[in-house]
Amino acid sequence: MSQFGRVKQWNTFARCWHLFDATWQNPLQCSPLIEKYLKGLHKPIYHPFVDCGDHVVIMNSKQIAFPGEEWRRRVYFHHTGYSGGASWTPAWELHEKDPTMIFRKAVYHYMKGNLFRRVVMERLHIYPDSNVPEEIMENITNQIQPLRPIPKTLDSYSNEEIEKYPKIIDYPQDYLLSK
Amino acid sequence: MLSLRTTNCVLKVLKTARNEQSFHRWLAPTLRELKRRKDSQGPEKPVHRKSFLEWNYDSEIYAFSKRLGEDFNNDLLLKAFTERSYIIDEEEKQKSVGIEQPTLNLIDNKELVAKGSEFIDDIVKRYLRTVLPRLPEEGIIELHKYLTSVETLSHVSYHIGTPELILCADFPVEKLTMANVLKSIIAALIESSGENRAAIFVRDFILTQIADKDLLQFWDLQHPIKLLSDILARDNIQSPEPRLVGCSGKNTILACFRVGLYTPHNKQIIGLGVGETVDIAHEMAAIDGLRQLFGTPENILFPYNLELEQLCASTDKNLSVNEWSQKNLPVQPTNFELHQVKMTSSC
Amino acid sequence: MVFTTAMMLVRSRGPDEFWRKRKIFKIAAHFSGRRRNCYSIAIKAVHRALQFATIGRALRKSDMIVLWNTRIRAGCEEHGIELNTFKEGLSRCDIQLNKKVLADLAIWEPSTFKALSDLSKSVSIDYELPGSEKYNVPTNVVTRGLLKK
Question: Per the database record, which ranges form the RNase III domain (chain B) (predicted)?
């Protein structure tokens, strides 16, 4: 192979690093998106036996969101292997113990079980907050667009913005606002 | 003791039984035994085709020329296939039988080899200079070296079916012999059907060996970055400015950098290279820039329809690397470019 | 264990045990363990293998279609167009390239594929196909709709 052909091959199979901000994202809905980048489904050279996937760095996994009663109703099962070793952990409890676990499990269970699954999972890096190590941050070249917009919370509005907001009524003088 | 009657009965039964049996029980063990004996002899030695009974050298020679679609003079072709070693071998054989003055009506191909070699060198260089007018002379020489190497010529020779026809002492035929025979075949073709046919033969069989290959891989460029800036300096362009166009996985062992070379005065990209380190990518970008200057892009298509009169003269030479610049390039269109213009206008 | 001549293969139909078994052992030559050397085990394994092969011939076709679709979708995504719109646009231009060719173009001829995606985009804008509102009008394609405007 010529020198030029060698670097062309290197360029084709180079691994990119993608950043994903998990704030207010539903991990169950995000997992197909993450899987696409991890397996390299977004590249025309994709083949199930070719190791052409990219790295994905997920930050703020502590801030993930579940709809409705999901935090209480979703239960993660574990069995130690001994008799009576079964345990069921609700999602909120698991999230308290390890804030990266729910996202990791969501992506892992979305992927089809085969010998490549654990290899592909090695390329997923999850961090509970925005403190991603500098060394990893330097590798990143792309950001994956979040699936749903991040809503603005009430306390993130400044006083000026609140005052400017058009009022429909004035509260009566003797009306008590809860403090 | 069996009576005669019983014996007859038994024989009859045996006979009918043998007739009814439509398959041979003995066949498999026999074949197995034959295989065992054959295996114990060791692997078979390759034998020359001429040791076969129905081998007819004259008709093979005739078929060879027809297969190539050429009209060879059969005597010349026979001469082209005769190596010096074969004649010596035959003479010794005759002497060992007892013939004092062996007479063989064979002439070896030494002259033809020299003539063919010269012709191939000439045509290859002229063709390359015609189709690659911007490539420096050093590059042309390296390409020529590849095309006329023993490896390439013997590869061509082998695949047009010469090894069985060559009359030489060594068997299996050596690569050098095959390459020499190809040269002498071409010389025989010059004498049989003229230089034009021979030039077409060289074009079709030898020059096609560089089709679909990266041309700069044959020319090992030393210090491409310096070379590029030297060449640009001759056109009064400042040395190009390398910029990191992209990188991924910077801190990993699978890092990939992409470097672009930009001209400082009009900010145009002149080369793009990738590599596992910035230095390699920079070097590749310089090679890419040179590749574009020299008119040898990656997807180059050679015109394999040129004939002898369309090639440039043997005395013409391309510019050397040391004096190569856009200004010094020949302004007048070469024969090949004229030919292209003619083609497009007729279409 | 190879049949050197066609005659040997014909022989293996007969009642001679050796030739009959030879045919099965030939198919089982690459199996592991006793499945390749013991006839009664080999014959079962060969039957199973041939069944799998029959199923596999059908599966291979569908697998390839899935793979081509994945590759074309990836190519489309690079140029910001959906797979369905891409296909619809091509068929409206009467470009009859099949999935295999499109997938090969996406890998080996990226600029050809980009030209196709641009063409498909401008056609989908012309016909106002669903989802075509968000495309930027490609500048390198002239369509009949553009001329009318």
Answer: 61-194
